[in-house]
Each structure stands twice: as C-alpha cells, then as structure tokens.
Amino acid sequence: MKINIKDSDPNKKTILDISMKSSPRSLAVTILNRVDQKNAYAEPLLDSYLSRDYITDVRDRNLLTELVYGTLRMRNHLDWIISSLYKGKPKSMEIGLKNILRIALYQLLYTDRIPAFAAVDEAVKITQREYPGRDRLVNAILRNTVRTMDNITYPAFEKEPARYISIVHSHPEWLVARWVQRFGMDETIALCKSNNEKPPLTLRVNTIKADRDEIMSKLRKDGYNVRSTDFSSSGIIISNPFSAIQSLQLYSDGYLQIQDEASQLVAYITDPKPGETILDLCSGVGIKTTHLAELMENNGKILAVDINRKKRQELRALADKLNTTIAVQHMGDASEDLGKNYHDTFDRVLVDAPCSGLGTLRRNPEIKWRIQEHSIKNCTILQKKILHSAARYPKRGGIIVYCTCSIESEENENVVLEFLSTHPDYRQMTPSAIMSFDMLDENGFFKTYPHRHGTDGFFAAVLLRI
Fold first, then answer.
1. Is 9's pLDDT higher than 70?
2. Annotation marks residue 355 as catalytic
3. Domains, the chain, with CATH or none
C-alpha cells in the first residue's frame, strides 16, 4: 500500500520509518547483516528482536524466523542464482544489498504462500531506503529470477557431484566432499537435506519439579500439540509452538529447558547417581550441568568448571531457576591442571569439549559459512589437551565421558583413540544407558545424526579408569 507523508509532518515520517524498519523482511536483513559483519549468532539476535514489541502479529514473527534461518540454510543456492544473474562481481557486492536479495530469493524459491510481487516490492523498498540508487539493480535481478527460474543451470551432477550437492543443497563444497568420502553420495544428500530442515522444538522437563506426563498434560490443556521424545525419558517435542517458548509460564518457572534430544542423552550416558561427586569440566551455561543435577535428584555435588565469566553467571541463573542446588562453580581452564586437590577425586567427569559444532547445522546454519577445514584441526588440538587434563580427576573405577556436538571423526573417535594409546590406565566402555543400538557404532562409540535419528549430531565415548 502506498502511503504519502507530508514533509511538514516529521512525527508521522518517524513513525513510518520505524514501521518499515520493523517489518519482518527489514528486520531479517538487519539480523543477517549482524551475523555476517559481527560474526554474531542468529538465535540470540532473533530472540532479542522477538522479545521486544517490534513485531506482535504471530504470522509476522513466524515469517521473520523463517526468513532468517531459511536464508542462512540456503545461502549457497541463493548466491548461485545471484551470481548467475548479476553482471558484476558478486563478492564485491555490499553485504546488506546481498542479504536483501537473498531474503527475496528465498521467498521466491522456498515459500509458496508469499506472492512473488510482494517479495520483490518489499525488497525494492528496503533497498530504496538503505541503498538509494541500487533499487533498479535489485528489481532487475528479482524480476529476472521470476521470469527465468526454470531455466537456471547448475553444475552437472554426473561430472561434479560434490559441487552440485554443495549448491543445490547449500553446504560448503569442502564439507560435502568430506562427507561423500565417509558416508557415500546418497547419505550425504540425506544429511544435507536434513540439515536444511526446520528442527523440532525439543524441551527437557525438569524432573526435580515435575514428571514428564504432568507437564505434557498441562501443555495439552493450553492447546499445544506435544509428544514425548523417542529416546530421552525427560524430553518432549512441541509441534505447534504458537508463541515463543520463553513466554510460557512453565518455562519461566523452571519446569522446562530448551535442549535437543541428543544433547539430553549425554547426561544419561554419564549416568550420575545420587550422592556422587561429579566434575563438569566444560560446563558452559549449564544446560548439561543442571540435567546431571536433576538425574542425581539434587543429592551429591557437581563441580562446574568454565573459564568464561559470563557463562558461569548464566549457569548460576539457570541453576537458580531450575532449583538445582548441588552445582558449585569454579573458574578454571579445562586444558590446564586444576590442582592436586582435584586429582583422583570424582566418580564421573563430563568433558563436553569445545568443537566445530558441525552436528548442529539445523539449529546454527551460520556455522556452515564460517568454519573452514583447518578449523577442525584447531579444535582437535584443544580437545586433546582437555581430555589429557581430565585424566587426572576420576577415582579408580570412575569414568570420563567425552562428548562433542560434531560428527567429524577428527574431533571424536580419533581424539579418544589417541588418548587411549597414551593412557594405559583407561579403557573404553560401552555406555550403560543404551537408548537405541543404532546409536552405537561397531566400536561402541555413541553417535547421532540428523538424517538418521531426527536429532542433532552428537558423539560420546565412555572411558573407565582402571
């Protein structure tokens, strides 16, 4: 709708500017620009905008979420189209202008409820405001896409399969090539497709406060479609989240915590018992720490170690909200010795190692476009140091659980096998909590994959000190 504003009425113009900048498409451009320019993560940025009053209509909120995540997931495909229709050098195009095009192209290619004219018109308006004089270029590229969409050519699958998969299924080519070598062609395509799907809203029920059936019953009464997770006995999945989960009273009161099912399974593999002493060596914001406390029925002690002050503060806030009182925070570098007082002390040690995050691309698609192949090697250097440090802390007969949210062998079994070759006082165990035998490989390592299990990609190994 065309709106005329008189120059003599600056207040109305300000209101209009705020309204335009707060449209789902415009906010999506703002968020994607920050993701690209500041190396920010989409999830906290999106949450910060949704928690304000910029957008109140649930349809617009859903559109903003889809545009941000969808555009990030399908970026390689969208950029291929831009490069096919843009006569200049796409790499030299301003990031903001490119994101306007990406968002509009995503609507044209991947949504069927948004009319093409609406996607094009809004993109042109945003460009007129943010990049005066470039709106003709945006209009031309988008209208060309509408006219020639069925004629866009791609690399031949038979000649360049990795490149074809990289573009059509929107993953970095180097990563596709790795996966083809490990998994084969068909499974690589299935994995890429799964990474580009919207992940389920998976929550963990705080069993200190309530049991799962009770919480599911309350959610159903409030109109939510909810089911129990397939493998975790404290997990639930909501299939129709018609409002932000953070706005739910059950969430605010500490009955629920957002956590992928594979991540939940790590605590079950650690298998803590009430009264035990546990070391969470890379505790972060405390998602797994508080789950361990719940499984221990708030009886025992957890030493939660992290070097990051902000994360330790977030852990304390989460523990308070969930009423998990047995976690004691400790500032420390997990790759260094915490001190002799901690040697031979703990029943169980959880090493949730810093990693590439390549098992979480469904939820964090921006990782695809940041990480390079050499980054994996850098991760393994730190992972090996942390696991070597962790060897000091379990009692005889105690265990280390080493886990990552990566599906790359270098970060997972290779780290563990090298550790075992230099620590004869440890041996690998099969996890005592078996959720599904197809989550164990032939060597007894726990592995999950989005396309196989419907969860994030996780790895875990149990190491017994003898």
1. no
2. no
3. 10-151 (1.10.940.10), 161-195 (no CATH), 201-258 (3.30.70.1170), 261-465 (3.40.50.150)
